[in-house]
Amino acid sequence: MTTTRTGKTQDTELATRLRLAVMRLARRLRRQAPEGISPSQLSALATLDGHGRLTLSELAAAERVRPPTMTRVVAALEGAGLVARSVDAKDRRCTHLELTGEGKRLIGRARNRKTAYLAAGLAGLSDADRATLAAATEILERFVKEPG
């Protein structure tokens, strides 16, 4: 398959439109987050929810931030009763972080609220548009699984 100059231009234009649409959608979804929690705090909660117990260093690496930044995020989450620390039984110098019951409830509420927001928007679309979005979602899921 050869890519023409027009094809490259079309790909660049599509990439630009996709980037803007994804950014705007992400911004709207962030607005659905519970009050009083920052996007970085919510992201850390989601990571702990998905991975289970993690050390501060593991959480920082998963979130792609430096440990001092994660220390501040975790301190706020711990202060709010959303995260708890526990000492490793084998290495008392190591502590693990995990969600508290309230942390699990908050992340669940945040996800439900965002899903409801999207579902309400989808309900206003035609069957054909919903089918197109379903196909595009499958493509996006494959796209984000690829390295890079």
Walk me through this protein's architecture.
- The chain is mostly helical and 148 residues long.
- The chain has a single domain (32-145), classed as Winged helix-like DNA-binding domain superfamily/Winged helix DNA-binding domain (Arc Repressor Mutant, subunit A, Orthogonal Bundle), CATH 1.10.10.
- The chain has helices at residues 5-30, 39-51, 56-63, 67-79, 101-123, 127-145; strands at 83-87, 95-99.
- It has a two-stranded antiparallel sheet.
- A hairpin with a 7-residue loop joins strand 1 and strand 2 (95-99).
- Helix 2 packs across helix 4 and helix 3 packs across helix 4 (67-79).
- The chain is globular.
- The chain starts with a helix and ends with a helix.
- The model has no long low-confidence stretch (mean pLDDT 92).
**Fraction in beta strands:** 5-15%
Question: Residue ranges: pLDDT <50 for 5 or more in a row?
Answer: none
Task: Specify the CATH architecture.
Answer: Orthogonal Bundle
CATH structural fold name = Arc Repressor Mutant, subunit A
The order of strands across the largest sheet is 1-2
* Helix/strand class: mainly alpha
Brief overview, please?
By secondary structure, the chain is mainly alpha-helical. 69% of the residues lie in helices and 7% in strands.
Structural features:
2 strands, 148 residues, mainly alpha
Secondary-structure map:
Blueprint: H1 5-30, H2 39-51, H3 56-63, H4 67-79, E1 83-87, E2 95-99, H5 101-123, H6 127-145
Antiparallel strand pairs: 1-2
